[in-house]
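TEACHING EXERCISE
Course module: macromolecular assemblies
Task: Read the component lines below, then compare them to the predicted structure of the full complex.
Student: A.B.
Group: 4
Components provided:
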Amino acid sequence: MTSLQILVDGFAISSLYALAAVGFTLIFGVSGVLNLAHGGIMLVAALIGWWVAGETPLGVYGGTVAGIVAGLLAAYITYFLVVRPIQRSSAIAHEEKEIFVLTGTLLWGIMIQTGMAYIFSDNPVTMRPLIGGVVNVFGVRTPRNEIMIAVLCWVVIGLLWLLINRTRVGKQMLAASINPRGLTLLGFELSKIYLRVWTIYGVLAGGAGVLLASFLGVGTANAGQLTASAFSIVVLGGLGSVSGSLVAAYVVGYLETVTAYLISPTLRPIPALLLLVLVVYVRPQGLLGRR
Amino acid sequence: MTNSKHVSARLARGMLSAGAALALTLSLTPGGAAPAAEPIKIGVIGEESAVAGASITKAAQMAADDVNAHGGVNGRNVEVVIYDDHSSAADAVRAFQRAVSEDKVSAVVASYISEVALAIEPWSARLHMPFITPGAASTDISKQVHDDYARNKYTFHGWLTSAFIAQSICDFQHDTLVKDFHVKSTVVMSEDAAWTKPLDERFLDCLPKAGIKVLDHIRFNPDTTDFTPIFNKIEGEHPDIITTGISHVGVQPTVQWHDQRVPIGMAGQSSQATTSTFWKDTNGAAEGVITASAAAPGVALTPNTIAFTQAYEKRFGASPAYDGYTTYDEIHVIADAMKAAGSTDPDKIVDAMEKTHYTGTVGTIEFYGKNDLYTHAIKYGPGFVTGLVFQWQSGKQVTVWPRDKANGKIAFPASIKMPK
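Instructor-supplied answer key:
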């Protein structure tokens, strides 16, 4: 019984992790940016979505859309106000830019978190589920919303896969991640490609934020944890590897769920972090990393 | 070199801000006002970003306005100076020190968090500053006053101790759930925090005495976001009711409990559920949740309760959390003590507060004495403060206990299976 419960519960949370992490890894793969404001962006989406759903006549669907748009805007602001100025700065030595981006996005994430706590309080919020009720899956009473979230995550990830592998735009992104200089020499504008990647990222992170708000609930205090889990997943899967991140999302999601059920909910994040340390020692390129 | 430069920069900045403060004070002091008319300041440390903590500062402001509308204290107005500790004990101690040394307050009302109150207590002793917490619950607060009275007598505990909260919940469960619903077993589920240790101790003692077998005792980290495994474990143990002890968490466990249709009711202390915004925060998932509180809208615990609740709702758009009621009462208690003492001398205020007999919004407030077990905590029991228990029903807080104050009957949503 418990094992079935773990199987069903772990699947939903893992799918959500996958959705959240895939955009994070995409930005790193294409533009070499580790965006530590990730949790903050999910937070903005969740809180705006919750607010619109509850305070305006747009309802829960309007809230979902508003949340995703808010996530997208937050991603744009992060890119234009924090990341791009650092990338373009001539005052920062090229080899130091990554560390400046890390620091900049980290601080920006904290600013988002504090600002959101000021506006919305640090009380966690939960959006009304898009669909209510429970169904029986292998004898496990599962909220319909949980099933819908898992399905939705996979549809979006599938669309992303099609976009990257089957369209011209996607192939440019792939090329940018392999050889940005070559792409520039062929006359493509990197900044345009970066903007597209950030757009995709914003939609994915925003969507994940809104879905998380309707699943477990989101509070401003969670921002750091959300960034940390995306970061762990991406490092575990191999920096920049989308498929690696998908596998890692399930490894982390199930490891957490198993820990919560069989050991203690309090220790939930610990084994995944231990695994991360182990991977850094034994296989620094991650599960499916190419470096 | 760098060091001295650093220090001089800090000094310059300090002088600048001191100058600015002086200028500000000068500009704010009306010319020719008698020094006697200077307001008496009371420091109020709340947690603006937490539901319960935000009620403290709001209610304090209302109480000060009331006191001033009725002539103030000894011919002086009362002014509340508000600080936010961001739910951090370190920030709270800094705010307390600042209140005493810079803002020259004469008393401090602070926090709903036991860890914060316990961190302030030694500073109240060192700085001889009368201090009362309107919402913290740990029994250690009053125990320390009892154990070292001479030193800690400046601290008052203005809310029921955890032991009394647990006792009132046991009494409630015995009077209603056992009698009307044939509840025979429970699992105690509480967050890991200073206030729940004595709470749980009392639960484990008084629930069996109330005729309810405790099948398990689960303490979880307040950082928990996914409560599914906890509810799943509890469900497997088949208790008739879940006895809760939660304050830092509230929305997430309640919504997940509802979304997953956990078939077991929750009754206990759920502090966030005490404010009216909880219904909206949980999108109505609160339906059926039972919690103890200081008071509830529409229930006249005293002749003052309803008037205060209505005025608060009118001013702030939501009903006060449990500590909003107590804060409102305790600002009055402090003001009365200053009147009785005819001074703001801390020792005289403490003496006068010990003689408090004040009928506020939550009941009649008196404090336990030097030789009682819970020195300087408010007295619990009929005729004093008992608190009440209400259940969320269709967006309303329906009071279900004590019976003479109840304005409705317990009713659980269909998904909850009661033994009856």
